[in-house]
Write a structure and sequence with these properties.
Layout lengths: L23 E14 L2 E17 L2 E7 L28 H4 L30 E12 L2 E10 L1 H5 L6 E11 L5 E11 L2 E13 L4 E13 L5 E14 L3 E10 L15 E10 L14
Antiparallel strand pairs: 1-2, 2-3, 3-4, 4-5, 5-6, 6-7, 7-8, 8-9, 9-10, 10-11, 11-12
Length: 293
């Protein structure tokens, strides 16, 4: 119970002499929709293709053209009435979902802090025409995730004449245990407008039960009229975790002008400090497995 993670308590499984064979997968899709509304008919045929190629056992290249997401699970409903902040919906589309663990930036969703920005949220790519993704480990201690996409949603949702261009690059240098240092850069280009973000993050395992992490991010945005705004965000924290005791202390600051066209921000202009401590009880009564007062 003095071990800080469940994974460290698992037994080691050793695989040897496994042969690697490069794989190439194709997933074609053909759809056709027909709509008749009051005598006004509309047809929308669509032919798409998604391909995957393994460059190495842990490095994948994905590409898609006019992807078909008709079989994707519907979003669970959320209460959106009288909200002080935006709500977020999880990514469920297969092309974007695979490899998303490499896109997480230190601090996101951690330390009981809901104000921490989600730097990369691929649901912002609403209706992609084409996409290209490179994810995995080109080396033992290097993790790379890169993505480029062309999104046609501005034409249908914003009455724009251009498609939006997305670019995402994420890199992590793995250190001992689960420690790492990393960097991230994102951009969304739409005509003369753009939204760009960049930053660095890190996590260090101090012992089996303690860790610290932090990140700092900056954004630069140009909207109609050529006006440029800049913003910043940072957060960090310390965490202690065992089977009996769990505690953390964290801070977060997000400037009013910080924005992410490729991510999600619950609220801007926020500064917060959070701390918490829990004690897990394991009662002898069989009716209760654990209790957390």
């Amino acid at each position: 119970r003095d071990n800080g993670t469940v994974l460290r308590q698992f037994a080691t499984v050793d695989f040897r002499d496994l042969a690697y064979r490069r794989t190439l997968e194709f997933l074609p899709a053909v759809t056709h929709s027909y709509t008749d509304a009051g005598g006004v008919t509309e047809q929308d045929p669509n032919v798409g293709l998604t391909a995957k190629m393994s460059l190495s056992p842990s490095f994948l290249l994905d590409a898609t053209v006019y992807p078909d997401f008709n079989q994707v699970e519907a979003d669970a409903s959320q209460v959106e009435f009288n909200q002080r902040s935006a709500v977020i919906y999880d990514e469920k589309r297969p092309f974007f979902l695979e490899g998303t663990e490499h896109l997480f930036v230190s601090g996101v969703g951690g330390y009981n802090n809901s104000h921490v920005p989600v730097v990369i949220h691929t649901r912002k790519i609403v209706d992609p025409i084409v996409g290209l993704k490179l994810t995995g480990r080109p080396g033992k201690s290097h993790v790379i995730s890169a993505m480029a996409a062309l999104d046609r949603s501005p034409k249908t949702l914003e009455n724009r004449s251009e498609n939006a261009q997305f670019g995402i690059v994420r890199y992590k240098k793995l250190l001992n245990d689960d420690s790492y240092v990393g960097a991230v850069a994102t951009t969304r280009e739409l005509g003369n407008d753009y939204s760009r973000a960049f930053g660095a993050d890190s996590r260090f395992r101090l012992s089996n039960t303690t860790s610290i992490q932090c990140d700092i991010l900056g954004s630069r945005i140009q909207n109609g009229g050529g006006t440029v705004t800049k913003g910043y965000a940072s957060d960090g924290g310390f965490r202690y975790y065992t089977d009996l005791y769990q505690g953390d202390i964290s801070f977060n600051t997000t400037s009013r002008n910080f924005d992410l066209a490729t991510g999600f921000i619950e609220r801007q202009g926020i500064r917060s400090v959070n701390a918490g401590m829990e004690r897990t009880l394991y009662p002898s009564i069989k009716f209760f497995k654990t209790l957390k007062p």
